[in-house]
Amino acid sequence: MSHADQCPSTMNEGPKQRPAKAVLAANGRAINRTVNGSRAWRSAEEFEDTAEFREFVEREFPAGASELLASSRRGFLQVMGASLALAGLATVPGCRRPDHKIVSFSQDAAGDIVVGKPLYFATSMPIPGGGAEGLLAETHEGRPTKLEGNPLHPINQGKSGVMSQALVLGLYDPDRLKYPFYKPAGKEASWDDFASWAGEHFEPYGKNRGKGLALVVDKKTCPTRDAWLKKFQDRYREAKVVHWSAVDARGQAEATASSFGGPMREVLDLAKARVILTLDADPLRDDPGALVNARGLSAGRAPRVVKEKGEHGHPEYEMSRVYAVESGWTLVGGQADHRLALPPSRVALFAVELARFILPKMGVAGAEPLIAALDAAAGSAGQGGGIDRAFLEEAAKDLMSGENRGKAVVLAGRHMPAAVHAACHAINQALGSLGTVVKYHPMTASQAYDSEAGLRELAGLMKDGAISTLVCLEANPCYDAPGDLDFAGLYAKVPATVCLSVAATETAAASTWSLNGCHVLESWGDAEANDGTISPIMPMIAPLFGHVADVAERQLPEEDRPRQPMSDLEFIAFLAGERRPDGYRLVRDAWRDMLKNRHRGHTDEQFESVWRRSLQDGVHTDQPTVAFVSKGVDFAAAATLVRGLTIPPAPGGSDLEIVFTTGHLHDGRFANVGWLQELPDLGTMVCWDNPAVMSPATAVRLGFWGPKENRYTKDKYPRAVLGMFAINGRRITLPVWILPGMADDTVQVKLGYGREVCGLVGDGVGFNAYALRSAGVALWASRCAAEKTDGEYWIASTQNHWSMESRTSIVRAIDLPAYAKYAHEPLTWKDPTYGTETTLNLAERLGELSHTPPNVSIYKNPYAQSPTEPAAGSPFAKGPQWGMTIDLSKCTGCSACTVACQSENNIPVVGKKETAKGREMTWIRVDRYFASMDYGEYGSLKKRGGGTGEGDVVAALNRPEEMLHQPVACVHCENAPCETVCPVNATVHTKDGMNAMAYNRCIGTRYCANNCPYKVRRFNFFDYGVTKFNGGYYGKKAVEGVAGVIPLGDKTGATGSTVHNLINPNLVPPRLREKLDQITRMSKNPDVTVRSRGVMEKCSYCVQRINTARIEITVSDVFKDAKDRGRIPDGFFQVACQQACPSDAITFGDILDDATEYASADGTKRRGSKVHAARNDPRSYALLGYLITRPRTSHMIKVRNPNPNLVPAERKASWDHPFHGAPHDAPGGGHEGHGHASADDTNTRPTTGAGPAAVFEPVKRSEDAGYALSLRVLGVGAHA
Questions:
Q1: 377-433 per-position pLDDT tens digit
Q2: CATH assignment of 652-797?
Q3: Which of 937-941, 976-980, 1024-1028 is the least confident region?
Q4: Architecture of 251-446 per CATH?
Q5: What letter would DSSP give residue 20?
Q6: Tell me, what DSSP letter sits at residue 10?
Q7: Cβ density class 149-176: b for 16+ within 10 Å, e for less
């Protein structure tokens, strides 16, 4: 632990000053090692190991933890008395149930509301662009509070993604549209007012068949909505209908239309794949079947025994192998065994060369025209083209291997040209994977629609004055249309515009009529999943901002009652002629017609049974399987596409290639969802922003970054250089952020930021990258000019937060050959110092336990009644004892666990400013590491090419071999360091093994956070959970009126934007701040306390779910035998992160349950809980286990399956000796690094004497004389 003063506000005073930078610069750091000689690091600053970075990580508390920015606070207090302005009260809606009866998910529950007891209902969520997820909504007193995956839906199977987890926050968005607004009158209106206006306005269009009328709808797959769209088009045949998606990708639709005769959607079964090669593709995120793909991929990423005794006497293991060729990091790229970073144009060239290599060798009949076209395309691209030929050929041989026949697949990314997709179709047919690993189902008309071409045609009509009325339904083209269209300007000139939207949008704000629509949790509908499964959408609650009828109005006939807000389905039906459309009846009638068409003679009684069962299950289970395309690829048509392929020259010089991607905000529709804004982005770990991301080498070449700059640690906030980026004459200024592993000469920009009208959370956050897009620029473009400009921009990134400083072997990985050799050879050795016998499994042998004294505590834990394992009869020896295991082989880094935990446990967002200071509140974080063999054994850079100058640093930083993810939450130590230092006993231990918090006892000393080696405790520096986020306060007008006179910091609000606040509202005394509005309060889980300022919090193992399960078991009297009382069967409940995790990486349960017999889903039986089996797996290890904290959460090392022909000799040699730092007298023991320290390892080098190798802390040695004396006594590292 460092010797940082516990009060940073006094860090420059007295004798407790921090060590000088010169001292820190003279001492190296112990670098986290994985295995196989590679080293893991989290950022460029950590990689370079500068003095500023060491000073940064030496702070036990985040920067400014106790400082309230005195100058800003004083300035604010000087004018606080100048105003008595009152913050506006939020609209307080009623909590009403839907008008039609909804069916609960449970067969036993009657659906009656019982206060304090949740009810569960099944529904669905359409995925933007196409596809659907099945959801299970937890409701309390009629209001949905938490969404899970529907276990009966084939897409989810009980799991869920980030988007669906955050859906509930969109429902309770206090900034969403609350009423119709008629812009010409400048006032609020009612739905009856709009209906009256619409009746007159649309009547002429019925007579001229819709000439001059246009409709823009959000692209999604909803059968009933599609049917009513057809009726609309039948009524208004001259009307222009556009299915709009701002991130539409045409490659797959155009390629399948050529290859298979019609536009098709790709349906993957990665569980059947042994070899996967992706070409700038991310099937785990940018795919309507992402949940299925994550589940399938993870099933093959954990090693499984295929033969108990193999060729060398060891068990034989099997797991899939993944190759990724991509321009930037993807979720699947982070899982890849081999990764090649290339610009998008070179990825396209790689696909062409791969097809040229595979197709002739596989002897595919009829492929000659395609092969000739591929040869011509390769020739036009010039020689070489920057392709790693060895990588290509070895990957191709692996794909073509006979044992992988029908089990190998090549996947093209969304933004790849149609010709690349067509080449992949041909390759997959040659590999025999069509119909097994990959299938193709027909697209719906909405999915197959060309969004950009349609909107461009509409813009032309608007420019010519041919459009007199334009209706937008859940679409926002005024924000996300390509910049060259000037759609917002054209939209303003249309005589009449109507926008139906749930959230506030730029299009709604510019419309003649702005109409508040129904959220998906407030409406009836249906959705079609990627595999063809159709599921109903059932409302969980009546529209929050609908008209509340009084007693007299309820007595009126239905047609005379005040109108309620409509969903997009109901609105289309309204335009198509329905006077009072009812979503329930629309869907019900559509399903009746659908079932009658499928089943001749289908009776009404049969339909009622199917309808009710579908509502209860949340999915229509009795439906025919959608047939996949069984015919082969049309090679002649595919050849035509390839002949039209133009591969631009390789980027370089001032010309870059730019890739537009989507992140957590998708196309911008989730910009006002705080959970997603604060969720760190993959790779950069940046939140609340969308910087231009490029490789270190490219940033250095263009002057955006240089080694030793330390922009992350030298200032109060991380700083980025600003740059000007231009494509086809369109320019935008963006901050630049470096990302190791990005392709050189490539820049990646996230879409969905820079919103101007969405709410307190998203307004003014980030930059609108849609402005760069123009004709022909969809999701990728070449010839992007980049130029450094003046100024800096501060950014919030969590990549260096919560560092477990001075610890190594935190995240661990091993190659499959080494794992196969040592997995079932636990090491038993006797410590030469204490004579204690220790047994270590494979994972433990890879860490510090192999060269530290035995884990024997100096005192007996009262619950264990033993210094080691719990004694018989002790509380810890009696079940249930809760524990968790996280499998790093399965974790993809998707962060669904983080959002699920926030939703379940009422965890607030804190904003960009607080996040930049390290004050984010998320209970479970996903640490991201890069791994490289360019590090020496203890932090020094290996000499490559004769030196370790700045060029060598950049080259090493530029090419990490892999990305590793490690979810970390409170590990619930049995010997918890936090418990021993709390002066008020606010953190205590329970008899079932959990480290619990008593919030009402906590006085906020933060000693527990200081003493936690895992850095998993979160402190409420302000009233994040009980005040309105980025809201107003008394005196705001006066304060901001004098903002130019009195220094108020950088004059931005909590989100880093100037739109709603010019100061950080957290600095305002709580009693003067705007309180949490009623609509936001409705989103809270009533089973979890909302914490206030000055309280420490952390993961609770979802204790509320444990208690609920215990009550259910007791009340139901499940166990008759007295000895089983108190036991909870494995799988009876799941904690939030476990339930959400799409890849099944998290397991939770009773660690003592080793004998109970359970039936598995596949019909087999297992003995004992899953978590018990996982903890006894040779891959299981305790994070920082050598500290004797005995954590209840364990991790399982990641196993990689590299191609031996692509592995360097140095790494391959480690397969026979992976145990760096094992005890000298243990098998395989020796000095670190095969018994020798690198000649470059002059800092923090381990020295060995008679005992095990030791690791010392140089900074602590320089500060603490007692520590230095101890080292002299031991003869270890006493001198530099």
A1: 988 876 556 789 999 999 999 999 989 999 999 999 999 999 999 999 999 999 999
A2: 2.40.40.20
A3: 937-941
A4: 3-Layer(aba) Sandwich (3.40)
A5: P
A6: G
A7: bbbbbbbbbbbbbbbbbbbbbbbbbbbb
